[in-house]
Structure prediction request, 320 residues.
Amino acid sequence: MSSPAAVVSGVPMPRHPPDFSGSPPPPPLDETAAVEVRELPLGTRFRLQGEITPLQQAFLTLHGFLVFDRVASPEEVNTALAEIDRVEAELLGAGRQSVNGVPLWFGPDPDGNEYLYRMGFSSQYSPWLSQFVHDERFEPVRRLVGADARIGEREKDGVVFNRYVNAPNSLRPNLGWHTDSLRDVFYTFKVPGPMLNVGLHYDRVRPQDGGLRLLPGTHTQGVWGTLFRKLQFVSQAADRHELAVETWPGDLTVHDGRMWHRVDANPVQGWGSLRRSMYVPYIVDAVLEKHEASPTPLYLRVFDAVVRWRAARARRRPRA
Ligand SMILES: O=C(O)CCC(=O)C(=O)O
Ligand SMILES: [Fe+2]
Prediction:
């Protein structure tokens, strides 16, 4: 593996997937026409407006998720991605291993250089990102989570930035089945209740490219199902009921934290498989800010161990 300096020096590298800007998505649903929620296909794309509409609310209640058409502009997508590249170089240069007790997942990229696969508290390192997540357009999403919901930039894992890339030595080309409620159980010591996760998607991901897979409707299962339906973060096999969430850069998704989901690997190897997502923590629980001396939460110790174990296993037995 080359030294971090090779990355910091700014050597131009094609660290991006193919350019799909020539294939825009179908237009989002026209909600001015009367439609019945049960008639809408699971792949429905909504338009984020000043308020969450009753139809959007009904879709979320029924299926457990929503996809909003390109809420971030192409310029914002590019700026956010450039900010993460900059922050990655800064963290590598400083030899950082964690932020506020949340491990930084560095691992080899397709060229063998150190690459940041997951970071918490990303907006703490980027004033631009911090300002962006507070933009007025996200207000309806915040109110959907709760009238008093706030963006916990310094709470839980903060604004989480994820990157997935498939390569022989990848730290993570994918993410096993899990419910985000499990994390909340560790953080709040409470039985999982309704909780919404808000994600921004930075890449064009077609079903055949892997990406986010959801089990629609599993947000209404009991606590036992939320915790134990599959082996959290270990089970990876496709489920015949799973839905592939197709995304265009700038899309925003909302999913119920009790719903089972995973990230499927892109079968392509190399930079063409790169997928990036960012999750914004809208929090209604009591304020509990993290700081540099915060310990690594137990759930992250387990999560970390599973991801590293799977990466090591894949190196011994290469993934298909
Ligand atoms: O990358 C994604 O879209 C999903 C990430 C995820 O489910 C998680 O980090 O909990
Ligand atoms: Fe998740």
Summary: The radius of gyration is 19 Å. Residues 56-316 form a domain with the Jelly Rolls fold (CATH 2.60.120.620). Helices lie at 4-8, 54-63, 74-93, 127-133, 139-145, 181-188, 223-228, 298-316. Residues 162, 175, 180, 199, 212, 261, 263, 277, 279 surround 2-oxoglutaric acid (ligand 1) (CB under 6 Å).
